[in-house]
């Protein structure tokens, strides 16, 4: 039977609303990527019996009892080393604020496409902030089933407010407050991860640029309904270049992580953030903390929206290399020094599924 080929639309949202039954060939993933690829809701059900991304309660770190603080640090260290990803609860950000973040992001994406286009980015000129869709600049040449909005949210003085949405009216106010509160959680996570390496709790924060230079970049991902979720990906398999990534979503499943030679579909955990260890922390910890391969599924039933915040060091100021405290005669440096800009350019972690297969 001949494969149906649809015309490529400029935005995935346009495609999804056009009533097409078959996705354009540009969005069809190669056979090699289709292991456990399917409708996100179905994959979430299948995953109920298997291993789950751990849930880590951060409440203990605020305790005055040293034993509770230490137990919390040890759990964060264990999960960051074994998984490289976790759900965090009792993170300290008010749920009312989180709901506002979800609301203003959804209201922006509910605007007509022609309104959103006023904020369009231009990747050809290096203007990555704004409204966009993935260009086919990856190895497979395939596109991803998502549109997005990208902007720097912290430090406030480095943010280009001209690209921030003017609608809804409280978008700027809500995102500024969210950025400020999330920055506190970033410091808390870096403190625990520092202590987990046997370092002073301020060490990783300092190595990454501190309050002045560590950047929080937000990418709101909009994944429309997809008629063939067994053939498409919202985001292709990758590791994050950041130090940490924080993910909030609208309680629609989609995240898969690759562990022990298989894809594991994340459950939706209420009132939590998903936190990924990124390449930058894998380098600084000399591989103790793992930057896990992950990807995003789509589904036929519901739009998925996620709010990803990437915590990135300055591009040129800091040289990334394993910290001296992580090195011994038996564990020499696994990564050569590089700036964050060099890491972005060369992306030494060209990680694919095959790179993660454990020898039998």
Global outline:
globular
Q: Could you tell me the number of beta strands? A: 14
- What is the N-to-C order of secondary-structure elements (H for helix, E for strand)? HHEHEHHEEHHHEEEEEEHEEEEH
Which structural category fits the helices and strands?
Answer: alpha+beta
- Using the CA coordinates, give the radius of gyration: 20 Å
Helix content: 25-40%
Number of helical runs?
Answer: 10
- Widest sheet, order of strands: 1-2-10-7-12-5-4-3
Low-confidence runs of at least 5 consecutive residues: 1-9, 351-360
Report the span from N to C terminus: 39 Å
Strand content: 15-25%
Largest sheet: 8 strands, mixed
- What is the averaged pLDDT score? 92
Q: Explain this structure to me?
A:
This is Leucoanthocyanidin dioxygenase. Its cofactor is L-ascorbate. The strands form 3 sheets. The protein has an 8-stranded mixed β-sheet. The chain is built from 10 helices and 14 strands. It has 360 residues and is α+β, with helices and mostly antiparallel strands. It has helices spanning 12-17, 40-46, 66-82, 95-109, 113-116, 171-196, 203-207, 210-213, 279-284, 340-346, and strands at residues 55-57, 85-89, 130-133, 147-154, 215-223, 235-238, 244-249, 255-259, 262-265, 273-277, 294-296, 304-312, 319-320, 338-339.
């Amino acid at each position: 039977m001949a494969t149906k080929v649809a015309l490529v639309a400029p935005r995935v949202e346009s495609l999804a609303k056009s009533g097409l039954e078959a996705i354009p060939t540009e969005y069809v993933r190669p056979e090699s990527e289709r292991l456990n690829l399917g409708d996100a809701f179905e994959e979430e059900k299948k995953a109920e019996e298997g291993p789950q991304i751990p849930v880590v309660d951060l409440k203990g770190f605020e305790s005055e009892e040293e034993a509770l603080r230490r137990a919390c640090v040890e759990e964060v260290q264990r999960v960051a080393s074994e998984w490289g990803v976790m759900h965090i609860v009792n993170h300290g950000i008010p749920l009312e604020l989180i709901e506002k973040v979800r609301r203003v992001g959804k209201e922006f994406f509910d605007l007509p496409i022609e309104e959103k286009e006023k904020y369009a980015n231009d990747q050809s000129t290096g203007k990555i902030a704004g409204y966009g869709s993935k260009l086919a600049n990856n190895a497979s040449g395939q596109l991803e089933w998502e549109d997005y909005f990208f902007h720097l949210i912290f430090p406030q003085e480095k943010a280009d407010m001209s690209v921030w949405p003017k609608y809804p009216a409280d978008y700027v106010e809500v995102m500024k407050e969210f950025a400020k509160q999330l920055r506190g959680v970033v410091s808390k996570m870096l403190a625990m991860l520092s202590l987990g390496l046997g370092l002073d709790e301020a060490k990783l924060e300092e190595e990454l640029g501190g309050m002045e230079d560590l950047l929080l970049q937000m990418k709101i991902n909009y994944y429309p309904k997809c008629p063939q979720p067994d053939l498409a990906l919202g985001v292709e398999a990758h590791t994050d270049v950041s130090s940490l990534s924080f993910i909030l979503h609208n309680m629609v499943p989609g995240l898969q992580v690759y562990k022990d030679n298989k894809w594991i579909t994340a459950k939706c955990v209420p009132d939590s953030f998903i936190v990924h260890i990124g390449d930058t922390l894998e380098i600084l910890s000399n591989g103790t903390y793992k930057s896990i391969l992950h990807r995003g599924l789509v589904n036929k039933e519901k739009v998925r929206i996620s709010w990803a915040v990437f915590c990135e060091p300055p591009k040129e100021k800091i040289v990334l290399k394993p910290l001296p405290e992580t090195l011994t005669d038996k564990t020499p440096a696994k990564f050569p020094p590089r700036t964050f800009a060099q890491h972005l350019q060369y992306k030494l972690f060209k990680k694919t599924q095959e790179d993660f297969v454990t020898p039998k």
